[in-house]
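BACKBONE GEOMETRY TOKENS:
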Amino acid sequence: MRFDIITLFPDFFTSPLSSGLLGKALTKEIAEVYLTNPRDFTTDKHHKADDEPYGGGVGMVLKPEPIFAAVESLPVLPRRQVILLTPQGETMTQPIFKQLVQDFDQLVLLCGHYEGIDERISALVTREISLGDFVLTGGEIPAIALINGVTRLLPGTVGKAESLKAESFEAGLLDYPHYTRPAEFRGMKVPEVLLSGNHAEIKRWQDQQQLQRTRDRRPDLLAKLGLDLESDLENTGSNSEDK
């Protein structure tokens, strides 16, 4: 997977792209990230990439010329999507990450700033994606979140591919609780079922906990799946002692 980031602040990505699993994936060339600064394509002595909005108003707007020139300087892979990171886009989700991995080999990420972009830049864009219903200072944080979420789904990034199948949102539900040693810490004990060695019972407990946790924290997800919680809890062998 190739990522091309169009950003006024390329230094922002130095640490995130060199840390953890993402850094290892880039070192192993599972994915590639290229940074392009629109200021490098300006023609004035001050390298001005923004200007005052027509019609008045506060703030500055990103100019179309340097953005177009930056995008047009990039190689074009056959399966490419140009994504604008904007609060007006569709909310970033796990299914979006999976679809991007399956359908594309190149993602061009446009990081907005200031009051936004000149609307004519939208002619370059094939998709708009948002990190959520809030406003940040720029598109760099959503861009690194998208790169992280997509890259970890690429083969070879995560050591055990099976671990990706049991995570939150993979089946539309939140993940079940996880525990490790010691079996008791400050009076808090690991559920007995996890120490039993009975894999069928453990699986039932995990399924039940996924449903219970989703009901308690994200009931909207259950509604999307059309699940009847009470009947599903019965089918997974719900036991109040295992909460």
